[in-house]
Design a protein that fits this description.
This protein is an alpha/beta fold. The chain contains 16 helices and 13 strands.
Length: 434
Amino acid sequence: MKGPKFVLIGAGSSSFTTVLLYGLLSSEACHGATVALVDIDAETLAIVEKVARKLVAQQGADLEIVAGTDREDVLEGADYVTATISVGGDEAWEADLKIPARHGIVQPVGDSVGIGGMSRAFRHVPVLVDIARDMERLCPHATLFNYTNPLTVNCRAVTRETAIRCVGLCIGPELLRRDLCGIIGADPADTWLWAAGINHFVLAYAFKVAGSDAYPLVRERLRGGTPGNPFCADLFKNTGFYPGPGDTHVAEFLPHFFRSEEDLEPYGLKLFDIEGKKRRTAEFLEKLRTAADSPDPVDLEAFGARDGTEEAQVLQILQAIEDDTREVFFVNLPNGGQIANLPEGAVVEGPAVATEDGLKPLVFGEIPEPIASWTERWLEWGELVVDAALSGDRGKALQCLAADPGCPGFSRSQAVLEELLAANGQWMKHFGGE
């Protein structure tokens, strides 16, 4: 019996494809599967394809590999599609960070909300919506698993504009679990986490170890020392709920706390090391090229699936759906009432159970104030960003900035916007860029 068909769009993206491929090789749910690798960078795609074929041969796996630069050639009949695209790559991300920084706007990551998240959305929303529209024609029953940031906005654009089922995947809630375990010295396998919110700003509303409430011990341990994420610890002390996935992401959702680099310093935060990211990307590509050209087997330790990663997460979800295990995962899905006091249809992150019919969100209830207000403001901002991204309207783009609680005023915002559109114009031509 022929297995499912996977289409990996953005197959040249960092380490994702090789790790996911290795997981597919060993997944019971994927016997006889077809894996289609898609990337507009033909040179990188050829390297990834060569490594993929080596892995299949090396493992003796029942897996067919196909590759192409045009997704329309391979989407037909797909069961699952993953999107790990990076429009403009590290070069565009560098502009998202450095241009606002020149105007005094601080961003520890710059990929989810704020000016950096907005600029990234302008590059990715049109492409992802086009992918989903192609899926409507060629594989309307397939599920799109999106990894591309800004995840909340990108998933919302797909679910708002098309009929495609879109699931946003991120290990943020698991990083939150690990952070809490690190504070009290617990084994993550012994814990139960009840968390919800939006991607990169999710809070733990209950945390148990071996069935007992562990929050009192978290409070006690935080009084006795400095945690790895001091800003998250401060929010916990003042709201009663610990956020994740860590200071760098969480800080960007509360920009009114950080008006300058000096405000970041007490928490040990700083601007994202984009130079380090560029170096790591180049090093991985070189490692990939070496693996493709070498007569030796592919180093499975270097390219194998790792527990606790997004790559392993999607495979666990697919296996759980196949086996109808009713296992709970934290995923990003449209709000159908699972978080009662956030907007209907907005993409929210929370627990969902894996059934033979797919992922079913669990009813969470209401999230408390002021967290609900902070979260809802970003969801409303996201609606404006989707509108601007799809229209290419500079006036709407400026409205996005005005709705941003970190907005430095119209004059500076407009200057930053124009510089970003000029720097990244080749990837945002719908805004009239070159």
